[in-house]
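ok, trying the design again with the full structure, not the truncated one.
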């Protein structure tokens, strides 16, 4: 009886040993897998990074910002032009550099260097000319564009037409002399550029002092 009991005890002891050995082996496998996992690179996130929002376009400048006493139809024409060219603003009196020897104040009761009315195409209807400034210009070196708005018989105006683009005009002005638009780069000097309406070409053309038309107007940023 003692021998049989001993045999059963030995069998149980062996089974317990095998179970313990299997547990240890399983633990080693798990630990090994864990160690190998530590060396793996982390999986990249599949969540897309939201794109940066697009910069909002600059709001167009307004005709009223120029400080001129514009009539409703003139204001509407300039506002429409500015919506089409949001990089520009209306040139103001303060954009003009006054000098003691230009004599302008003594010549005009009301003087706006960058805004003038007149019949620029000799059709009996009032037109107007405005200079604009590029909004990203430096304060000391503004770049001007001269635009003419032709009047219509119904009281409105055609879309603005560029006469000159990106020129230096801080010391000058624009004016209408009879049937010509005059751009003066520096009011203290006699040098001017004249544009006369050409009915055949249906636009203003640059004319020389000797009245010979030139198909090559002055270059920009002079």
């Amino acid at each position: 009886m003692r021998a049989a009991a001993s045999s059963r005890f030995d069998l149980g002891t062996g089974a317990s040993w095998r179970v313990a050995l299997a547990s240890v082996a399983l633990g080693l496998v798990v630990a090994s897998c864990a160690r190998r996992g530590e060396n793996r690179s982390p999986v990249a996130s599949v969540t897309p990074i939201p794109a940066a929002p697009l910069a909002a376009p600059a709001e167009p400048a307004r005709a009223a910002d120029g400080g001129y006493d514009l009539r409703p139809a003139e204001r509407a024409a300039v506002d429409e032009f500015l919506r089409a060219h949001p990089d520009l603003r209306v040139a103001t009196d303060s954009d003009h550099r006054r000098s003691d020897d230009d004599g302008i104040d003594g010549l005009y009761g009301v003087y706006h260097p960058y805004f003038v009315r007149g019949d620029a195409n000799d059709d009996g209807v009032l037109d107007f000319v405005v200079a604009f400034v590029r909004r990203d210009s430096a304060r000391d070196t503004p770049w001007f564009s001269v635009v003419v708005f032709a009047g219509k018989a119904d009281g409105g105006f055609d879309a603005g037409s560029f006469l000159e683009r990106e020129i230096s005009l801080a010391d000058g002005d624009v004016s209408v002399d009879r049937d010509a638009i005059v751009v003066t780069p520096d009011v203290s000097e006699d040098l001017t550029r004249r544009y006369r309406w050409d009915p055949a070409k249906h636009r203003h053309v640059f004319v020389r002092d000797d009245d010979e038309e030139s198909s090559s107007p002055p270059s920009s940023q002079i």
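Keeping the full-length input from now on. Confidence is low (pLDDT under 50) at residues 1-12.
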